[in-house]
Specification:
The chain has 247 residues and is α/β, with parallel strands linked by helices. It has 7 helices and 15 strands. Strands 2-1-3-4-5 form a 5-stranded parallel sheet, sandwiched between helices. The chain has a 5-stranded antiparallel sheet with strand order 10-9-8-12-11, covered by helices on one side. Strands 13-14-15 form a 3-stranded antiparallel sheet, with no helix packed on it. Strand 13 (211-215) and strand 14 form a beta hairpin. The longest helix has 33 residues, at 104-136. The two termini are 47 Å apart.
Length: 247
């Protein structure tokens, strides 16, 4: 889980960082900020799963940070020295509200709530994707396992896939390549209903919608993102037949 800490007290940031490092190493602190404007930038830049947020800070309060986001797509754990804001904290659906100085048992309880919430959200996303796929009777999205959960990728956004032994590297138009613990045959099977996917080589599966050039002389396919894919000689006839059908 990626986290951002926003607190105007450097000592408070340091204490929370040390506690998370010692008691919850699965949480990676990707950024810290000492005020709300810098916190907003840090959130937009890093897309965290959770924000540890102080309430009383100069210029803007922690509650006002939420007004900078048309949709809050991260969880919030308030950590503050003031108890009078507890009710309002839960009104904005915070995971928890912790008082300074932090008590480790309270922090651990808040982190357990966070884990359960994120697991529930992940399951909800998977069920919604399944419903969408069943309704259309063809897979429109696939779920790729990543370090902290699942990334749901539109099939039409996949440019190509490369075999990496028992793994597959998945390339899309919007994200960095992802190394997934499934072999290329697995993806070839689930993408079979999509006629735009073609396996020109035992190490590659491409989306021909992203094809820019076919060099018959060099046995090479060039995609929009300038990736060069080798086409096996025994695949050239099948590929050329496929292209003719598209014209």
């Amino acid at each position: 889980m990626n986290a951002v800490i926003i607190d105007d007290e450097e000592a408070a940031i340091r204490v929370l960082t040390n506690l998370l490092t010692e008691f919850s190493p699965e949480i990676k602190i990707v950024a810290t900020a000492r005020n709300v404007p810098d916190g907003v930038l840090a959130i937009n830049r890093n897309k965290p799963d959770v924000v540890f947020l102080d309430i009383e800070m100069p210029d803007y309060s922690g509650f006002e940070l939420l007004e900078f986001f048309p949709q809050v797509d991260f969880e919030i754990i308030f950590i503050t020295a003031y108890s009078q804001y507890a009710l309002r904290a839960f009104e904005v659906s915070a995971i928890d509200y912790l008082l300074k100085p932090l008590q480790i048992n309270k922090l651990e309880a808040a982190l357990e709530k966070l884990r359960l919430k994120l697991e529930h959200n992940s399951m909800t996303d998977r069920l919604n994707t399944l419903k969408e796929n069943l309704k259309e009777q063809i897979i429109r999205k696939i779920a790729l396992p990543i370090s902290d959960g699942l990334l749901f990728v539109k099939v039409d956004d996949i440019t190509h896939l490369d075999a990496e032994g028992a793994y597959t590297k998945v390339f899309t138009i919007n994200n960095a390549p992802l190394l997934v613990s499934k072999n290329l045959k697995f993806f070839e099977d689930i993408l079979k209903p999509h006629s735009q996917f073609f396996r020109p080589h035992r190490s590659h599966l491409i989306n021909i919608n992203f094809l820019v050039k076919y060099s018959r002389h060099e046995d090479l396919l060039i995609l929009e993102n300038n990736f060069k894919i080798t086409i096996a000689k025994n695949k050239k006839e099948e590929f050329e037949s496929l292209i003719e059908k598209m014209n």
